[in-house]
Amino acid sequence: MDRFYVTTPIYYVNGAPHLGHAYTAVLADALARHHRQLGERVRFVTGTDEHGLKVQRAAEAEGLAPKALADKNAGRFRELFARLGLSNDRFIRTTDADHLATVEAMVHRLIAAGDVYLGGYEGWYAAADEAFYDEDEVVDGRAIASGASVEWVREESFFFRLSRYQEPLLAWYAQEPAVIMPETRRNEVRRFVEGGLKDLSISRTTFSWGVPWPGDPRHVLYVWVDALTNYFTAAGGFADPADPAEAAWWPADLHIIGKDILRFHAVYWPAFLMSADLALPRRILTHGWWTAGGEKQSKSKGNVVDVDLLLDRYQVDALRYFMFRDKPVAGDGSFSETRLLARSNAELADNLGNLVNRSLKMLERYRGGIVPEVVAGDDPVDRALRDALVATAATVRRQMADCDLMTAVTAFIEQCSALNLYVNDTQPWSLAKRGEDRRLDAVLYHAVEGLRHLAILGYAFLPETSQAILTALGEPAGTVPAWTDLHWGGLPAGRQTSAPPVLFPKLDAEALGLSDLT
Ligand code: ME8
To answer: Do residue 284 and residue 342 come from a single domain?
Structure first.
């Protein structure tokens, strides 16, 4: 594959972003960066979902027009994503003009396919989820799946003939078993579809904050049709003859979503695409939740972690690293700042940071910071280090292809430990004392060339750190370190390196007042 189009969900603008939003965004960013390293053309899109009842109500509660609330909160998402170092190519908002045009064209396609009819909807609706629920999905006024409170709605509505797509969807799941990841989620979706699909209400008449139904402005489009279509808009939409290159981004290679919105992405979205005669996404990665007190962190539960606060305390790379390292992608994980602090100190400051510091300092002390001549040296310790670096690169590559960031980042940090051990074992300071110059050259070379490898391997997870290491090694700054540069001997002899950067200052739990945090 020579291209990679990756998306995050677009986030509701009813409130401020929190750790859960940051997580999906950073996952997508790491995969986008990795694919850029592989030399692929990459498009990475994130953004905000701005229409619907939930946003309209939040705006009313704040005494703002919905668009004003959307502007305010879209700005907060943008700012946070900049702080997190996201490398997205576009931040799409569903109020963007090109999106509105694409949505309208999409609805016309569904109509042209004979998949839309006017009817009456009566049933449960949860504004918090912007979802319709069946009787058996509701208990005591709440949706069982999400806990959101439901209300009974009864109104005229346009329907999408979702029932027509039961068989085509089942055929797609069977033909492309790897599309929905992980497998447990695929099975969940398949069982849901096997249970039968009812036609879906795709318009509302009882509020106004939405895309007007083409040709019938009494209706606004159901927000999920509008929202899901963002992925297609951001791929260029219906081939714009002025810019055919843009449209070439469809289909998406990877949609990354939380498990709360699986049904929308693995059932409704492919059905809309089939109806519109558009290609289906190649993969849908479903991740688990960051929890607090055993529950999903969510704005409505008021149990969210403030990412800005964390970023005031920790390096952005420490937070990114922690989110990959501490929770498997597919599973849930309870967030603990104590653990974030412990990992930042032990794994990043003491392990990686110390390794960079001591290696460059020794090179400075013993060789004036100049990279020594490459010594072929078949010392078994050297060979073992080189072999380990090759193996780690293969592991990271494979795990990133499987979207298993926890295993990938763990292999990376274990490689940092291994390089630290190499320095401990070879004892450059003793070699210097004994005047074993050739051996010292070999060892120093292995240490700093090892650092170069680590900077390339860690770029997807720790982009700022990776750049700082490469800069200290005199490598070109600001460019994406290519995966093909992972070959031994890339660091040229005679290169002047600079003083080690301070990567991860040691943090003190008491000074941070950590006792009253999770
Ligand atoms: O659902 N842990 O938007 P949303 C991990 N607008 N991830 C979490 C999380 C948590 N506790 N909480 C939220 C919507 N997320 C729709 C999407 S897409 C066409 C429309 C992440 O603001 C996770 O990715 O409720 C989840 O799917 C997304 O935020 C939902 O964000």
So the answer is: no
- Domain boundaries, position 356: 336-485
Beta-strand (E) ranges in 134-264? 138-139, 142-143, 151-160, 180-181, 200-201, 203-204, 212-213, 216-221, 254-258
Distance of CA 235 to the CA centre of its chain: 18
**Residue nearest (by alpha carbon) to ligand 1 atom 15:** 20
Which pairs with CB-CB distance under 8 Å and at least 24 residues apart come from 424-428? 425/381, 426/381, 428/362, 428/366
**Which mutation among 95, 289, 304 tests ligand 1's pocket best, with the greatest number of atoms within 8 A of CB?**
289
Q: Is the CB of 290 under 6 A from ligand 1?
A: yes
Whether 77 is in a domain gets the answer yes
Q: Quote the tokens at residue 397.
A: 């590559």
Tens digits of pLDDT across the chain (518 residues): 699 999 999 999 999 999 999 999 999 999 999 999 999 999 999 999 999 999 999 999 999 999 999 999 999 999 999 999 999 999 999 999 999 999 999 999 999 999 999 999 999 999 999 999 999 999 999 999 999 999 999 999 999 999 999 999 999 999 999 999 999 999 999 999 999 999 999 999 999 999 999 999 999 999 999 999 999 999 999 876 555 555 689 999 999 999 999 999 999 999 999 999 999 999 999 999 999 888 888 887 888 889 999 999 999 999 999 999 999 999 999 999 999 999 999 999 999 999 999 999 999 999 999 999 976 668 999 999 999 999 999 999 999 999 999 999 999 999 999 999 999 999 999 999 999 999 999 999 999 999 999 999 999 999 999 999 999 999 988 899 999 999 999 999 999 999 988 999 999 888 887 754 44
Is the CB of residue 262 below 6 angstroms from any atom belonging to ligand 1?
A: no
365 and 264 inside one domain: no
Whether residue 309 sits in one domain with residue 355: no
Q: Which atom of ligand 1 is nearest to the CA of 24?
A: 24
In a domain, 413, yes or no: yes
